[in-house]
Amino acid sequence: MKRKSLYILIIFIGFAQQAKAQELLKLEDAVKIALENNYQIKLAKNDLKIDELGNTIGNAGMLPTISASVVNNNNILNTTQTQIDGSERTLDGARNLNLTYGVGLDWTVFDGMRMFARKEQLNFLQKQGEAELKLAILTRISDVYLNYFDLVQQQQQLAAIDTAIVISEERVITAQNRYSIGKAAKLEVLNAQVDLNVDKSLRLKQIELIKTAKIRLNEILARDVQTDFIVTDEIAVDEQLKYDELKSVADQQNPQIQAQVLTKNIAEQELKQVKAGRYPVVRITSAYNFTRSEASLGFVTQSYGRGIFYGINASVPIFNGNLQNRNEKIAKVQLDNANITLELQKRSLESQLNAAFASYVTNLELSKVESKNLEIAEQNLDITLSKFKIGTITPIEFRTAQQNFLDAKVRYSNAMYLTKIHEITLKELAGNLSF
Questions:
Q1: Which residues contact 79 (CB under 8 A, 6 or more apart)?
Q2: Is residue 99 situated within a structural domain?
Q3: Which of 78, 101, 210, 383 is deepest in the core (most CB within 10 A)?
Q4: Which structural domain range is residue 176 located in?
Q5: Worst-scoring range by mean pLDDT, 87-96, 221-230, 339-348?
């Protein structure tokens, strides 16, 4: 079609001119920048590092504590001592010193298996951090996809408006030529110029929408919001999505479900730790000490010593004001809440999948209908323009055909964009959005 060829030529020329002055930002490049720069992703990575650093047997309480100590006590006393024979000894300013230093070990060897439950809980906390990082990445990459294709759609609509402007300019020239040879009234020229100005006004508003969309995408990419760029001019839709496959993948890979499963596991380990309070606690203590003492008055004025100290401490809880029962009941309620939340999350995921898939199917069909409408509108505009040039139709009829073409182009662009949105949403919910 002649009109379609003109439209494609306008898009190609405009895109080529823009590309010379602006950076062409490909989708994969935008995703890469977001993965490197986005602040939410950085925060999630740091949170995961904290979980990894905390996941140690030492933090679980499995290792002994070893410490060095020094105790130095001194005093100066006015001292009077009564001996066994009844005699007294008196010394003013008597100095006494007691010095002890050494290395000690304290090790809890049994605490009702609390330390093992704690270590398992730390493992789950690290896995939960990994799931939360995946969720943060999926969410931010989904934002990149949505804003990127919104910008593609806005550029497509700008190209459609540019086509309308070219046609309106051609109409103004035709009207002026017809007026100059006396085949048209001045009113026809004025109406053509008014319609041209309307199209130019639409273009200015569309440019503003594009600038706003660029600022929003730059913000997500965590770079200078004034960075100028262009995006590709096509929206490719995956038409092969199947609900059953998405549901199966989502049950296994959805990061929110994964995080909630881990929350339930953490609650189970918390209950085990609370129940450990019913069992005895056994500790081993040991030390190697050096001692020194001095006294100005007494039978022994100086003494030195060194050696090993060791022992075992065991304690058995008998009664603590029913706090043990209370804590166990609370831990069981928290575990029950975690199970309820998991089921709620699964139902919510299923609902979101159903709604998104229904919208995906509807807009996929709608985009096909609008594609046919666009072809018809292009043919209609082509015929109308030819008739307008020979004066067999009125300017109003021509403008109507022109507006129908523009509306058809916008509707088709919107349908493709909405289909892409729901495709992205479905893949995000399934946890397999590629990045």
A1: 90, 91, 92, 94, 296, 297
A2: no
A3: 210
A4: 2-37+111-279+319-430
A5: 87-96
Q: What is the pLDDT of residues 287-308, one digit of tens each?
A: 999 998 877 766 667 888 899 9
Question: Is 28 part of any domain?
Answer: yes
Please count the CA atoms within 13 angstroms of the CA of 190 that sit on its side-chain side: 3
Q: How many helices (H) and strands (E) does the chain have?
A: 9, 6
| Residue 19: per-residue pLDDT | 46
| CA separation, residue 155 to residues 217, 365, 367, 392 (Å) | 14, 23, 18, 35
- C-alpha 392/C-alpha 404 separation (Å) is 19
Single out the residue of 429, 434, 420 nearest to residue 364, CA to CA. 420
Q: How many CA atoms lie within 13 A of 8 on its CB side?
A: 6
The two three-digit tokens of residue 231, written as one number:
């995006």
CATH code for the domain of 231:
1.20.1600.10
Check residues 100 and 21 and name the one with the higher pLDDT.
100
Residue 399: inside a domain, yes or no? yes
Structural domain includes residue 255: yes
Secondary structure of residue 62 in the 3-state scheme: coil
- pTM strictly above 0.85: no
> Is residue 408 within 8 Å of 374, Cβ to Cβ?
yes
The answer, yes or no, to whether residue 87 has pLDDT greater than 90, is: no
- Name the DSSP letter for residue 343: H
Q: In what order do the strands lie in the sheet with 65-82?
A: 65-82, 88-110, 281-295, 302-315
Number of domains into which the chain is organized: 1
